[in-house]
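Propose amino acids for all 326 sites.
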């Protein structure tokens, strides 16, 4: 996405807070670095002219992959949301109306406008179509250069990680980041309490109804071969575990009641073959089949990267460039 240099320079001045009486807070070099950290990026100001450097960063951000011509990259949406944080209101502009008006003069040149939603956060909208551009979790979108580097580091970690490390350092942080609650690992200290699941968690729908999920985790490839091989788990080994998971109640201490698992996730640190999915589907009845979901290594890697979850400690080895965001 290519924007006019004039537009980038004007937004850069807003981020820096340049101009006497400007409705934007002034940011020195260290606070500019903090600003981009708050926007979930890894850009750090090195002491050059602030506005020119920020303008260059904005141009780089707009060159990142994005869904279509009417939707700026998610990173740019986060930058605008950070710039228009209501907590940064100045004395002369307590409701940020002046700041919003000034920003929209620049954005209109590119066919966009900013607005505050009911959650008091600032979003971008395409003027011609009304399409709202908001940072969303899309694990199938193209990944940026830094995201690809983080993905490679996580892949190397998964190649060596144990099942407990996969659960504790990858899956638990990932599902918490995705909005699940009470994400709890069970069974590895006392196998008698596992009842077919390694993790249980719950998710609250917008209607305030609650769904419960159980996860059965395998660190290796999941196949439908007759016998398990080194680095491969047989789907038949987890058939009984899934059946037990769906039929056994769990106790939710926050509601003080026992509930059944609504859905079962089968998670593998490697590939889940099509044969394994089909084999399990054929042996579960129709009601249970609709409750089972699969997640393999590709799903884990993409979700972990696009949701910006910090890399596990064991993966924080800088084997590429020094600008990898952790």
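Proposal:
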């Amino acid at each position: 996405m290519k924007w006019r240099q004039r537009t980038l320079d004007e937004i850069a001045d807003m981020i820096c807070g340049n101009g006497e009486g400007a409705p934007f807070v002034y940011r020195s070099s260290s606070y500019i670095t903090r600003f981009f950290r708050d926007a979930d990026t890894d850009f750090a100001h090195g002491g050059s002219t602030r506005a020119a450097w920020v303008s260059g960063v904005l141009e780089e951000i707009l060159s990142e992959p994005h869904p279509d011509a009417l939707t700026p990259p998610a990173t740019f949406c986060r930058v605008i949301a950070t710039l228009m944080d209501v907590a940064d209101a100045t004395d002369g502009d307590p409701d940020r109306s002046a700041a919003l008006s000034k920003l929209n003069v620049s954005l209109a040149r590119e066919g966009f406008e900013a607005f505050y939603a009911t959650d008091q956060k600032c979003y971008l909208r395409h003027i011609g179509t009304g399409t709202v551009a908001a940072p969303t979790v899309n694990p199938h979108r193209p990944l940026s250069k830094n995201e690809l580097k983080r993905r490679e580091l996580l892949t190397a970690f998964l190649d060596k990680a144990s099942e407990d490390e996969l659960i504790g350092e990858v899956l638990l942080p990932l599902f918490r980041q995705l909005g699940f609650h009470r994400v709890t690992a069970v069974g590895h200290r006392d196998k008698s309490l596992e009842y077919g699941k390694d993790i249980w968690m719950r998710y609250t729908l917008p209607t305030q109804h609650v769904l419960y999920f159980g996860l059965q985790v395998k660190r290796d490839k999941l196949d439908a071969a007759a016998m398990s091989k080194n680095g491969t788990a047989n789907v038949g080994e987890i058939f009984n575990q899934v059946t037990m998971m769906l039929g056994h109640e769990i106790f939710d201490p926050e509601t003080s009641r026992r509930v059944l698992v609504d859905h079962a996730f089968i998670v593998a640190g490697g590939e889940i073959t099509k044969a394994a999915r089909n084999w399990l589907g054929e042996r579960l009845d129709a009601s249970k089949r609709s409750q089972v979901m699969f997640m393999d290594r590709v799903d884990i890697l993409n979700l972990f990267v696009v949701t910006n979850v910090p890399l596990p400690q064991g993966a924080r080895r800088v084997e590429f460039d020094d600008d990898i965001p952790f």
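DSSP finds eleven helices and twelve strands in the chain. The mean pLDDT is 84.
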